[in-house]
Queue: 2 jobs
Job 1
Amino acid sequence: MPYKKIPGTKDILPDEALWWEKIELSARDIFRLYNYQPIRTPIIEEETLFNRSLGQTSEIVQKQMFLIKNKEDNYALRPEATVSVVRAYLENNIDKTSGFAKFYYMGPMFRFERPQKGRLRQFHHLGCEAIGSTDPSLDIETIALADDLLKAFSVFGYKIKINTLGCDKDKAMLAEFLRKRISEKKDLLCQDCSRRLETNVLRILDCKKTGCRQLVNTLQLEDFKICAECQTHFNRVSDGLNSIGIKYELSPYLVRGLDYYTRTVFEITHGELGAQDALGAGGRYDNLVKELGGPAQGAIGFAFGMERILLVAKLQDRQTPKNNLVYLIALGEEAKRGGIKILSELRKNNIACDTDYENKSLKGALRRANDIKASSVLILGEDELKRGIITVKNMLSGEQREVKREVLVEELRSQYAKNP
Ligand code: AMP
């Protein structure tokens, strides 16, 4: 084998890619229900765009960026898309032309992580961003949208955890509060968290190491109060979620590792995922638009990991979906020439079809038709050519009949209409 894929990347072969398409299709339907519009941003951006927005001390910027450096420029492969969407929103003056806007996207993201189950270096986000509002109703709608998406994907048994980080001032005070309490017992911290104590103390709250967990459990976070305005916002969000019957858990220890998050944050986990149990996560980022040079506007978004959705989606009948495909076997030069016309006519009539391009024998070609689960086979040999007919074999019943060439397309169309 001359080449292998890079560790932490994945080939998504057709059998699996079909399921990706199913998920993507139902996601588009749900996004449409909530009036989200598609957006596609580049996968490379200026490195500084991420450094500035995600935070110099964030895990992603410190350890996980895929950097591309050439003589003059420093680019990075995007580790997530929120920042790019905000950049695109501002660069294209959408803040001035439409103000409030809702976007969704699906695409690859890149993080230089140690590959393990559920953790890749190239993975895919299915996410959305609503930019231009601080209204708590939008937080409610956004969480409802995440919930609806999972239902549409037939994902069950997930948990929605929500928390509020408060505004920037609250976050700074929380960091101070944590630093004080944690410093008293800092011997319990793992090596990473000892560093985080100085650089990104909030992150200690979601460290999974035993010592850190023990310490965090003694912090009595309930002693810390966010400002009245942020508390009112959060109360509105939780009341709203209750009013539409969305089940969630309040999770005071939930923090997000990126600088840009403020107020409502949420994470959706699934027990079947093991150590990497987050299906998706998101939250408000009310300062990011301004931070990137735009007006002071609130925003909120989230992203699911596609690979993780596929790990837990209970898609019915996980086999390759039934293939309504007609397979033409043309035997000999002349039949092949005629075959091209038949294929063209079938496709013009919206009938999916294919043929043998490997000059197989009749037996070999029939085997191939069977392997690719064709529903009908058309056989065009010398005899059929002479008589102006085609032999049509139904691959399910095995029944074989002769059909006049002129009525072939019509016949097949009615057959498909009967057995779509
Ligand atoms: P994040 O931006 O880290 O909150 O990511 C949102 C979601 O993307 C996570 O909840 C995961 O489902 C997924 N995700 C993040 N990083 C990876 C990764 N390295 N490999 C696979 N999925 C990931």
Note: The chain has two domains: 14-167+226-317, 326-415.
Job 2
Amino acid sequence: MQGFGKGDTSWFVHDRFGMFIHWGLYSMPARHEWIRNREEISDEDYEKYFKWFNPSFFNPKEWARTAREAGMKYFVITTKHHEGFCMWDSKYTDFKVTNTPCGRDLLREVVDAFRAEGLHVGFYYSLIDWHHTDFMIDSLHPLRSRPDRKELNAVRDMARYREYMQNQVRELLTEFGKIDIIWFDFSYPDIEDGKGHEDWGSEELVKMIRELQPGIIINNRLDLPSAGDILTPEQNTPEEPPLDKEGNPAVWEGCQTFSGSWGYFRDELSWKTEKQCIDLLINHVCRNGNLLMNVGPTSLGYMDSRALERLKGFAEWMKYHSRSIYGCGMAEGLIEPRDCRYTWNKETNRLYLHIMNWPYRHILLKGMEDKVAYAQFLHDGSEVTMQKPLKPNVHSNLAHHVAAGDLILNVPVMKPPVTVPVIEIFLK
Ligand code: GLC
């Protein structure tokens, strides 16, 4: 990462689990945060949301407590999404929350509340801006089909937009104390009229950020491949841990939604179950990744019951199982048993066997015969007994699975009453 400095990811790879928050004017139409693009809404027609935004049930302390109880150790919030609306009292625009009926600097209140609960602070900032009158109309822009697009663009000036954007980033990184992550979204140099590092001035931006906030983690969406501290796959879970350009394991964070969209979407019917959400967390950590799990609060300022149910699911599971998440990563070189995922804590040298689909009575650990000192369930600390195959063939009912050097864990017929049971294995 020559020339661009490096963020401090040591806390990040330990903490593993964060909350993404997408909140803005788009939570009022409540049908996707890209609504301006999808429905090609003009500025005049979008104005009604600005005029009436008033989250009268907003309670940032409750949000922060909910996140902490779910086991989340950091959060990343949209300070401005593609719609261009700013959630703080920016001195560079009037299109901001303090000019709506709400009248409060919501970002500041969120930051204070989450910090008080001990979470690290991350800012999402949209490089794209569909409100700014200097932002060139491209094929993602809500005004793309306007017959006068060419004339509109003739008076737009990306250099002025760039200055605006850099001023805002400076403001965000100087007015809110220590910021741990800056999460830019996004570059698209490959599509027609797309935008990339030259449009954003990514190089200067990164230099400025490193000066203002040494140690801050910068994500990888500035179209400057060598300047990102983390990879950010979105709505998919890599099968194998991603590698950096030198072929070393990369620091990565998958971002995921409960229901498909990021902003509050009233009528969406694709909500993941509690089990699917917990599976996601495990599937990220077992391949050395973090999970950034998104919530889209309503325009009234609360997290709706569907989101709260799933966050409660995380809280209940994390209460007993966070030991298999914090400080853990991939168990390299071990073969995961059928329907299971391993994580491994290298400090304590304990291995965590996540049983994603409950088996019948036995779990076969390949090649582990001499490696295990003790095993117990994480949710109740009860011992999990083991058998070693004496000789292949002697072990009548298991013989056909078992090879010399394997180990068998004996598990109860009834699945323990937790969403995903975990066996903690003390390695020798
Ligand atoms: C995207 C979308 C967006 C969302 C983001 C989260 O690229 O533009 O709406 O904020 O991904 O990763």
Note: The first strand starts at residue 17 and ends at 21.
